[in-house]
Amino acid sequence: MAGDKKGGSSGDPPYTDGKPELSKADNKLTSLEQRILESAIRGAVPRLVGASHPDLSTHLHDGEMPPEIDFHLHPELDPKARELPGTDKAIAYRAALTQALIQPDPRAHREIIEELQRSELPMHTLAIQLFSPVAAHLGRLWCNDETDFIQVAIASTRLGMIVNHLSQNRSQTIRDRQKARRVLLARTQGAMHTIGVSIVASCFRDMGWDVDGGADLELNDSLYMRLSNSSYSLLGISVGQIDEVDECASAIRRIQSNRSLSAMKIAVGGPAVMKNPQAFGGIGADMVARSALEVMHLADRMG
After folding, report:
1. Environment class of residue 176 by beta-carbon count within 10 Å: exposed (0-12), middle (13-18) or buried (19+)?
2. What does pTM read for this prediction?
3. Most C-beta atoms within 10 A of its C-beta, which of 20, 98, 153, 238?
4. Hey, what CATH class is 85-170 in?
């Protein structure tokens, strides 16, 4: 027929060598498709790198790590984190913990607590290799619109309960030490997601520190009163938003102006620091920690 084209009728798209010939318009992605593609690539790269190169942690130095790797999701690719005792066993719990956090049935939540208690894994290993990456994964699900705020809030609350339960359960003997190193943890007003503070607290307790403060202590008069009444080796501040840099710097200057606190070190961390650590480089803190692993190394050096 006159209207026939190679490989089809007049209503069919033209073909070349048996394949559809796309127009220039067909080659263009919509803005929505571009965002979906970018999100998929960003999410897939760390997993592909880790799966294809399981020996990265033993053959690469810190300065040679590919920039695509997200160490918040895959801390095991950091050579120092890989040395934590029980790392592989802790990693194996990630899928089960994630499912327990998002399932409506609370029995899975209780079962994972019992399982982690029986595992006898060090709390700092659980914090670095299990709790932190699972928390980061929950955050990514929300940012990518793969779940809603309520689901993430419930999962985060459950995760916080698990961390606090295991941490408190394992720290009873530490409280009896007369000269335990002491850390005071606080947060800025904008640090609404407090699971990170709980994870850091669990690391310190597991390493023999006496932990005071926490997610309920903000940068206000209550903080300064505690500093006046007790002695601490370290003050850790979790910062929630970038625009709280000045507030944090002002608090640090006030603390450092007190001569009786001159021996105490100050570390800042939290969501804002993870997002833009450079913004906190000149505020007077002794350390800017981008992860719980860096906090743990600081505590180890101070010990």
Report:
1. exposed
2. 0.65
3. 238
4. mainly alpha
